Amino acid sequence: PHYDSRIVGKYCEKRDPHLACVAYERGSCDMELVNVSQ
């Protein structure tokens, strides 16, 4: 991808948690995915 999934996920956490999960899944950001899903 042409973007950093961590940055996109962090931005999406407050606006749209589902999009944050998608971004973290694409970037294989396992710990971030666990944190946003709690």
From TrEMBL:
UniProt repeat feature CHCR, residue ranges: 1-38
This protein's GO CC annotations: clathrin complex; clathrin-coated endocytic vesicle
Signal peptide extent: none
Molecular-function GO terms, alphabetical: clathrin light chain binding
GO BP term, example: intracellular protein transport
SUPFAM superfamilies documented for this protein: ARM repeat
Protein name: Uncharacterized protein
Organism: Adineta steineri
Lineage: Eukaryota, Metazoa, Spiralia, Gnathifera, Rotifera
